[in-house]
Design goal:
The structure is a single chain. The chain has about 120 residues and is mostly helical. About 80% of the residues lie in helices and about 0% in strands. It contains 4 helices and no strands. Helix 1 packs antiparallel against helix 2 and helix 3 runs antiparallel to helix 4.
Amino acid sequence: MKKISTSFYDILGISSATICLIHCLIFPLLTILPLGLSHNPFIDLLFASIGLFAILKIIKKSSLLVSSILVVSMALIWISILTELLLDIHLDLIYFGGIGMIIGHLINYKLHRNQNH
């Protein structure tokens, strides 16, 4: 049975965080158009769950810097999502968390790639 490499989880995390960040930046612009769209924080929760899965697989084998960036970024994302779900307050922490997730995964991907060459 082939073991899934850390780079797969980095690519999954980068993709999920990028799509989430694009969603968070573009969706508010789409809501001003008369399309009948409204924000659904459960979509954010889906992206955060995928990201959480990816970082749980990565932080065991990554450096302290990468692990710290990913954990802090994920905490910012979850705080923002749970605040919106429970208190109906939108926090901008999700943007910083999304950017941090992308940066953390990119650093880890580059370190992992350099280590295997």
